[in-house]
Amino acid sequence: MSILDILADNLRQGVVTLRYPQRVPPPPNYRGLVQIQSEECVGCASCAYVCVSAAIQVTDQPETYTWSYDPGKCTFCGRCVDACPTHALQMQEERPPIYHQAQKLAVTYRMAYPRCEGCGKPFKVATEILRQRAYGELSEQTEQLLRLCPTCRQKEALKLMIEARRVKEATQ
Amino acid sequence: MDVKPSLFDRLVRYARGRSPWLFHLNCGGCNGCDIEFLACLTPRYDVEQLGIRLEGSPRHADILCISGPVTRNTQAALQTIYAQTPAPKVVVAIGSCPASGNVFADSPSVVGPLENFVPVDVYVPGCPPRPDAILEGIVHAIEILKAKVVRSAEGGTYV
Amino acid sequence: MSSWFALLVFPGFLYALPMGWLMLWVERKTLARLQSRIGPPFYQPLFDFIKLMTKEPLPRPSQENRFYLFLPLLALGATLGALTLLPVLPHSFSLVGDLALFIALIEIAPICLVLLGFLSRSIFGQVGAVREAVLTIASNLPFIAALIALAYASGSLRLMDIALHAPPLARGLAVLAIFACLPIKLRLNPFSVANAEQEIYQGALTELDGWRLGLWELNHAVEWVALSGLTVSLALPWRSGLAVLDAAIFALLSLAVVFLLACLAGATARLKVGQASRFYWRWGFGFALLALAVSFFPFGG
After folding, report:
1. Number of domains in chain C
2. CA nearest A9 in C: which residue?
3. Which residues in A lie closer than 8 A to residue B103 (C-beta atoms)?
4. What is the pLDDT of residues C231-278, one digit of tens each?
5. Number of continuous H segments (helices) and E segments (strands) in chain B
6. Does residue B140 sit at the A interface (CB-CB below 8 Å)?
7. Residues B113, B101: contact at Cβ < 8 Å?
8. Which fold would CATH assign to domain A26-112?
9. Is C210 on the interface with B (CB under 8 A)?
10. Interface predicted TM-score (ipTM)
């Protein structure tokens, strides 16, 4: 095909340009900004661990933890979304907006650890999704135990065990 | 500062907005953004519809499109090129690298981010950004270019 | 018709300025359409010019500045002067030896470009200047040979006489040879070696900024009008006598030449400097020799 044929074809085909405000919509499953549903987050920091460019950082304080994300650093690889055990992270299907100042799009979420029902100390809790994945259906008793901090849970579990043995001995 | 712009000023601003010439500079990036930038010149996106021309020399340019984290080797060239661009000029940072260093941040050969060396007006996020994002970034840059002072009252300096 | 009218109104400044910008636009738009693009909006060259003239110039030594002002203005003046001599209207301004004057004036712009390139002291500017010099010599060989052939065939050194009385065969060959020289003189694509915009950053224009570049672009626009106008006015053997009609035909045919040149530019890729000059030394010169032979030994006449 000679260049003249190609040019004639181009002329016949007409203009293929999109006039400026028009644009091609991003394809399905396009990886845009990472968004967090903070109520799903358990603060495990898997996202920060797999993030290649340190765009996601999770820092730990005694009673709270912060999840911060800077799109200016992000490579939009989606590894954080894959790594999140509770599906708290998702990516927008829109392309990220233009901004004018460094770190303008950066977001920080500060989330409080849930408190232990026994002693009131903050602790990392396993969410509903994780519990279901680990144990399937749970008994009322186990669920109650999971809402306690590790120390209280030990005590409570021990108490329950002793109680159970006493009941067993009494029935024998 | 409520001075009504004269007819000449308005004409100059309008002409400036209709004829922004680009200079494209890679400060040590991976070439991904450069390829998306070149996609803007293809028939599908055609930046020439906005009066844009890609120039080879920074002295002809109005808008500097910079990609890549600034590396030790490109830093001097970057500063020379910025100084060689006549005012009024706008800097567009393409991709995540010039904004933060991206995956190259904290490398011993990277001295960025870009704003350490030149003032950046527009950031186009993405790794790499889509061509239409780059195009939109350039349009934002054009608005900034038009807003720059045409002739300041104090004596002809541009900001 | 007075020389002042020819210099300032038609086909001089007042005509050449909008026409030159229109030609620049037609060239870019045609190229864009050939590539299925939208291309630049209509007023683009005008806006480019205004923008360039109002940019803040970078500081330069004042001696250099004098040259940056002087050389493009000299080139512009010379090109306008050449334009003045074009035999467009039946009674347009002409001198006895204006062919020689035309050749001298149209060559001033490339010389100025070479000087600008060397003045810039940039490596790209100097490479561009060298290329421009080599190609100017290469392209002038067929260009001047074709004009000599035309002058001999029509027995006059006056452009008006040449345009009206040249025999058809010699005229055809010579006009084709002149047309083949246009891409190199306008620095268009297969021969855009001297101003290659990506390899050597527009050659001699690398270091020009703001108004310095704007003045040169203005000269370039007028060059378009002068060179396409030369081809058209030498190709047309008759004039209607009605000034407006002649001017309109001239303008339309010039635009057609621009269109053809843009198509050529769109269909070809840049050659190397050796290839380009070899092309002109070999084919261009051969063609011009043919024109010379036809005019010196007219067949059947």
Report:
1. 1
2. C34
3. 52-53, 75
4. 998 888 877 777 788 888 888 999 999 999 998 888 888 888 888 888
5. 5, 5
6. yes
7. yes
8. Alpha-Beta Plaits (3.30.70)
9. yes
10. 0.86
